[in-house]
């Protein structure tokens, strides 16, 4: 007679035993979390807790009041141009809106050159002319041989030219050797331009910038120079401020 087997003690298959063990391990790991009531709180999608629900709105009292933005055009009193035009600042009997020199008495409104400025307040032109010339020696030049560039700035006007500056962009195949100026100072930047601050230049006087360089390859080059005076001066002839020369470099 075959022995009776208790069903509860019957051997289990390996798969059934492994499944039960896995379930128990998962439950054992979740018990502390389930007991504490924090299950799933840490689960997020795109940074938002899954059980967070609708975003909480902070109480009104917790929000800092937004400062009122101020815009100058709204806060400032508009300028009344009509009122200003009805003034007579210089007391010459002509309203400022019609006066060609509202700050200087000129009841006759004389304007010899017809430029809209009365003769008594006509801006005084700065009669300066920074005539600029450029020489290359020798020309044509030879590869590896010294070449001298000389820039001369002469003030052919009747008044002092203030804060004269000069710029000489060196072509790619001219290698700088030395740099000098008769007044002021010059520098050479990484873009191969010579920049000079040359100071004031009295009427009838001239200054020079001398550049020694060496051609590194054959061909035709264009050498340019440019000189100017400060923006408040009026150059009598701006057409002679930027000379340019062609240079042939031989082997």
From TrEMBL:
<dbReference type="InterPro" id="IPR003367">
    <property type="entry name" value="Thrombospondin_3-like_rpt"/>
</dbReference>
<feature type="region of interest" description="Disordered">
    <location>
        <begin position="92"/>
        <end position="113"/>
    </location>
</feature>
<dbReference type="InterPro" id="IPR013783">
    <property type="entry name" value="Ig-like_fold"/>
</dbReference>
<protein>
    <recommendedName>
        <fullName>DUF11 domain-containing protein</fullName>
    </recommendedName>
</protein>
<keyword id="KW-0732">Signal</keyword>
<dbReference type="Pfam" id="PF01345">
    <property type="entry name" value="DUF11"/>
</dbReference>
<feature type="compositionally biased region" description="Acidic residues">
    <location>
        <begin position="92"/>
        <end position="101"/>
    </location>
</feature>
<feature type="domain" description="DUF11">
    <location>
        <begin position="133"/>
        <end position="242"/>
    </location>
</feature>
<dbReference type="Pfam" id="PF02412">
    <property type="entry name" value="TSP_3"/>
</dbReference>
<dbReference type="InterPro" id="IPR028974">
    <property type="entry name" value="TSP_type-3_rpt"/>
</dbReference>
<dbReference type="InterPro" id="IPR001434">
    <property type="entry name" value="OmcB-like_DUF11"/>
</dbReference>
<dbReference type="GO" id="GO:0005509">
    <property type="term" value="F:calcium ion binding"/>
</dbReference>
<dbReference type="InterPro" id="IPR047589">
    <property type="entry name" value="DUF11_rpt"/>
</dbReference>
<dbReference type="GO" id="GO:0007155">
    <property type="term" value="P:cell adhesion"/>
</dbReference>
